[in-house]
Design goal:
CATH superfamily of the largest domain: NAD(P)-binding Rossmann-like Domain
Distance between the termini: 10 Å
Helix content: 25-40%
Number of strands: 15
CATH class of the largest domain: Alpha Beta
CATH architecture of the largest domain: 3-Layer(aba) Sandwich
Order of helices and strands: EEEHEEEEHEHEHEHEHEHEHHEHE
Number of domains: 2
Largest sheet: 7 strands, mixed
């Protein structure tokens, strides 16, 4: 079968199309013919060996696939690598069946990005109806779903931040109450203005760096800042305990990979979101589909922030 392999560390240029042996299923596993594989920002870190987990060469990237089994079942699930390929092996306990009304791209958007958005709001921030929520990078895969889920969970005001007017308009179209520029300079003032001059209850941030520094300053009493990435590739200023005390603040880290290994963290929220999507209540944004051979271009586009929503590879 054809697959994308990484044999040396680096940027998008290390993604190489190769022929490899077909995968073989073990006990409790199914081989699927991959109709689409998900692309995540984390994949760009893995080719550089800068992700939270270490990279061992050579490897086939990709942790999300949707495809059909030999008996015709259409499955969506997580794989421990190997997704950028024409075939992949899915463990039965990390896969669910996809409703016919949900497209491949929509289904893949609900895996890492959708489950991240769900858990950021429900599990980490513990959102309460009526609270104000700021979602940084609101036009991205996680952000675009977090905007919709925050409204569905009863947020009183959803404030989206994004880098361009087009991305801010997308967030508004998805249900955000207001959208502002996410540039660090003036971030805190723009967010407070968007919340009628008041501080906010929750901030979801994947940027880190100076944006995270600014976000901490806009939290209200008992506010929660959930950090789940470092897209800026710049560390934030270290937080001192005294910075948190006067407003009873919480800074919470979230990484989806170990979370989904816990009981009840995978199937239940994923099936809920698939059903919401099939009903038209949730609208996952598919930002672009790339042939398998153009995986390098996909990584270049995501690193250049030319994309919105979920990016997918179509191996077959």
């Amino acid at each position: 079968m054809r697959a994308i392999q990484v044999s040396t560390l680096g940027g998008p240029e290390v993604l190489t199309l190769v022929d490899v042996s077909d995968p073989v299923a073990g006990p409790g596993e199914q081989v699927v013919r991959v109709s689409a594989a998900g692309i995540n920002y984390a994949d760009t870190h893995m080719t550089e060996n800068t992700y939270l987990s270490r990279t061992t060469l050579p490897f086939i990237p990709g942790g999300e696939v949707v495809g059909r089994t030999a008996d015709g079942r259409r499955l969506l699930g997580l794989v421990p690598g190997g997704g950028y390929a024409e075939q992949a092996v899915l463990a039965e306990d990390s896969a669910v069946e996809v409703p016919d009304a949900v497209s491949d791209g929509q289904a893949l958007a609900l895996l890492i990005q959708g489950l991240s958005a769900w858990h950021l709001l429900r599990t980490s921030a513990k959102i309460i109806p009526g609270e104000s929520v700021v979602i940084n990078a609101a036009a991205g895969g996680v952000g675009s779903l977090a905007v919709q889920l925050a409204k569905y969970f009863g947020a009183g005001r959803v404030i989206a931040t994004a880098s361009t007017a087009e991305k801010r308009q997308l967030a508004l179209d998805l249900g955000a109450d207001v959208a502002v520029d996410n540039a660090p300079d003036g971030y805190a003032a723009r967010v407070r203005d968007a919340n009628d001059g008041k501080r906010v209850d929750i901030v979801l941030d994947a940027m880190s760096g100076p944006v995270l520094d600014e976000a901490l300053s806009v939290l209200a009493q008992f506010g929660r800042l959930v950090t789940y990435g470092m897209a800026s590739r710049t560390p934030a200023t270290p937080i001192q305990p005294g910075d948190l005390l006067t407003r009873n603040l919480s800074v919470i880290g979230f990484w989806v990979t170990p979370a989904l290994a816990m009981r009840g963290m995978f199937d239940e929220p994923l099936i809920e979101m698939l059903n919401l999507t099939a009903a038209g209540t949730l609208r996952p944004i598919v930002g672009g589909a790339y042939p398998l051979a153009e995986a390098r271009r996909a990584h270049e586009d995501i690193l250049a922030r030319r994309t919105t929503g979920k990016l997918i590879l179509t191996p077959n």
